[in-house]
Every structure is written in structure tokens, then in C-alpha cells.
């Protein structure tokens, strides 16, 4: 029964996006990249955005904000964080947090990014797939960090939680 339900969703996906395939609109076709919904929730499809793009970061920030224990752990944390790539020509993304909650997401640098976190595509993928924790990536310098080391140490546990949450948001690389 489970396999037939999965195939029904595959067929629904094909029918929904047939016009996109026929028109050949590349941007829409890229946005149509999907994963099957998890077995408990067959009511929607998850559109995958590029990792560290604005739409992906918006979903990620909303997901982290919904975690009350994480919001409590980050209370009092105010910073602009620059996320970037060491080996890709994608724009950096800037997340501004006020009192631990997201206030702004942009590709335009704020006046001053307090913390900078950059990694290779391979490292970001391993973090996203939960093969590498944020904490270990920091300690092994696979994540290149620039900013206050005291801030990093003070918020290491909540930062590690946020990096683990990256894997909850589907992404392409």
C-alpha cells in the first residue's frame, strides 16, 4: 500500500509540473525540484531551494525561531552573521538576529557582520546531512569562523543546535 501511495504522489507531481516541463522555463523547472513528503505527512511537497539562498535561509530562520528552547538559549544574542562559501561563486547571505530572533535576511552586507561563517560545499553538505556537527566543524576549522571567540564559546550549544537544524530544511547544492 505504501509504495502505491508514493507513486500517486509522483504522478501528481508530474501532472502539476507538466506545463513547466513543456514550456521549458528553466527557473520554474529548478524550483520544481522536490523530495517525497515523509511517510507521516503526504499532504504537501517540499520545494527545495539552493542551500544558503534567501528562500532557504527564510525557511531555516523560521524553523529555528519556532523552537522555544532555542529562542531561550539565544536570548540576548544580537548579531549579523555572514554565511558563505569557500569554493562556490554564490553570494554570501546575511542573517541579522536581535535578541536571538531573526530580523533580516539579505544578500546585501549590513554595516558590519559581527560573525562570519564560511565553508566548502562538501563541509556544508556534511553539516546539512548531519554527518558533521557544527561544533566539530568549528573545532576542526572545516567551518572558517571570524568574529568574537567569546561569543562563539558562550553560544556554542545553541549554535550547534542551529547547525543541526539546517538538515531539517530541504536544499540543493
Write a structural description.
The chain is α/β, with parallel strands linked by helices. The chain has two domains: 2-47, no CATH class; 50-172, Nonspecific Lipid-transfer Protein, Chain A. Helix content is 43%, strand content 21%. The chain has a five-stranded mixed sheet with strand order 6-5-4-7-8. Strand 5 (93-98) and strand 6 form a beta hairpin. The longest helix has 15 residues, at 2-16. The two termini are 33 Å apart.
Give the C-alpha Rg.
Answer: 18 Å
- Straight-line N-to-C gap: 33 Å
- E-strand count: 9
The CATH topology annotation of the largest domain reads as Nonspecific Lipid-transfer Protein, Chain A
The share of residues in extended strands comes to 15-25%
Which architecture of the largest domain per CATH?
A: 2-Layer Sandwich
The succession of helices and strands, N to C, reads HHHEEEHHEEEEHHEHHE
Main sheet, how many strands, which sense, barrel?
5 strands, mixed
Entry keywords:
single chain, 173 residues, Nonspecific Lipid-transfer Protein, Chain A, 2 domains, 9 helices
Quick description:
The protein has 173 residues and is of the alpha/beta class.
Topology record:
Layout (H helix, E strand, L loop, with lengths): L1 H15 L1 H6 L2 H6 L2 E2 L10 E2 L1 E2 L3 H12 L2 H6 L5 E7 L7 E6 L2 E6 L8 E5 L1 H8 L5 H6 L3 E4 L2 H6 L1 H10 L5 E2 L1
Parallel strand pairs: 3-9, 4-7
Antiparallel strand pairs: 1-2, 4-5, 5-6, 7-8
Amino acid at each position: 500500500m505504501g509504495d502505491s501511495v508514493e507513486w500517486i504522489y509522483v504522478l501528481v507531481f508530474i501532472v502539476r509540473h507538466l506545463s513547466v516541463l513543456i514550456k521549458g522555463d528553466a527557473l520554474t523547472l529548478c524550483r520544481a525540484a522536490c523530495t517525497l513528503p515523509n511517510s507521516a505527512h503526504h499532504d504537501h511537497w517540499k520545494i527545495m531551494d539552493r542551500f544558503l539562498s534567501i528562500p532557504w535561509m527564510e525557511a531555516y530562520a523560521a524553523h529555528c525561531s519556532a523552537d522555544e528552547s532555542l529562542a531561550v538559549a539565544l536570548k540576548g544574542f544580537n548579531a549579523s552573521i555572514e554565511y558563505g562559501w569557500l569554493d562556490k561563486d554564490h553570494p554570501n547571505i546575511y542573517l541579522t538576529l536581535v535578541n536571538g530572533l531573526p530580523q533580516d535576511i539579505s544578500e546585501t552586507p549590513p554595516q558590519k557582520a559581527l560573525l562570519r561563517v564560511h565553508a566548502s560545499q562538501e563541509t556544508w553538505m556534511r553539516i546539512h546531512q548531519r554527518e558533521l556537527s557544527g561544533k566539530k566543524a568549528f573545532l576542526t576549522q572545516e567551518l572558517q569562523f571570524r568574529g568574537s571567540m567569546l561569543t562563539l564559546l558562550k553560544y556554542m550549544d545553541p549554535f550547534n543546535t542551529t547547525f543541526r537544524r539546517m538538515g531539517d530544511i530541504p536544499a540543493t547544492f
